[in-house]
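Re: weekly structure request thread

Next one in the queue (446 aa):
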Amino acid sequence: MKKTFSYLVGAALSLTLLSLACGDDGKPQPQVPLPLTDGGVLWTDCDLTGDAGTCAQGEVCRFIAHYDRAICVRPCEPQGTCGQSEAACCAAEADALGGGYCVPAEVCEALDAGTPDAGANEESDGGDPKGDAGSSDEDGGTAGDAGPVTDAGSGSDAGTDAGTGRDAGTDAGTDAGTDAGVDTGYTDIRVMAANLTSGNGQDYDPGHGIRLMKGVKPDIVLIQEFDYSAGIRSLVDQVGTGFHYYRETGAQIPNGIISRWPIIASGEWPDPRVSNRDFAWARIDIPGPRDLWAVSVHLLTSSASDRNAEATSLVNRIKAEIPEGDYLVIGGDFNTDTRTEACFTTFRQVTVTTGPHPADKNGREGTNAGRTKPYDNVLVDADLRQYQQATVIQGPSSSSTFPNGLVLDSRVYTPISEIAPALSGDSGASSMQHMGVIKDFRVPNF
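Done, posted below.
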């Protein structure tokens, strides 16, 4: 299995740390005063009998014997850190499979195993997932360059089959995920569908689409019309320095995938209805035991029946070649006029196609230039959908939350400073026919 050795080592460390759960003499010390803060945020008292709602999102109510009271704490992994000097991650008997909680550092004492769980939300703080996952592995200097960009111990080439790709990425991905600055409990993943070319060349040369991507800081981009005169490597580095990518070969308007994490296998599947592009796929080594398969598509404008034929071909490929235990995302330019088209019914075999759907600042879902049709989509399988979370766009002095994901239209986005360097006119640039679509996920690393 993927990363089996690393995870066995991690489990052994967890058991060792559990057996050495820190504390003083193990005896309660009633009414010891709480420290004032956990690094800037007050430690919050809570009531296990029903007042757990006082805890913030991502925290749970737990009894701390050292203080003889219950406080709000964040779950963590024993081998992890809590992000500030005032708190430490301590194992708890109730979480012998490797869990623990961030508690005041002076405590570092096992939590009361017999206390009932008073919080429904046990997700830990995902930390900062925006760290550097490693440098690029191939110079994509010209727009014609193609092939997977993955040296990180994978040894896989374009078109490498699924089995080879799984074995090839065994240990490199584990290290890359750790180095990316991701919390050991969960990884935040922002996925973006982007057919954001403008001007007359079906490419990213004018720069409007690049600014839009930079403005929302995606981790994975399912990109269409993947051409840029300054070179694909230059385009990718503007989205994320050192990000990995795959770009299909021999296509007039190629599809591709850009990824924060290593691509351990990649290739393309034929589109049965068009000759100037195919379906580009990449197997991405995200942190944790599962890989994420990303498929970038650009369906035809000709008819709904042609789009359904393309969807049928793609679904058959997915069923034959992608392990059911891995995550799946299909995204890009579907050119669909309505959500009742047959292709959505077909995609329902492998993804969740029902709403609620991403929307802009004004609640509008359409993604074509006129904002009336669902041209662009990010569809994921049920395994990944369960981890979808609100999309939060953080600016220098404000933030905005989109509960179901974001349709990025800079013409209506306010304040525009939240998506800098994007400009308000970028989504209305000449020949900009699509809006970007964004969904966010918090995926467990275990």
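The chain has eight helices and 18 strands. Residues 141 and 231 are 5 Å apart (CA to CA).
Next request, please.
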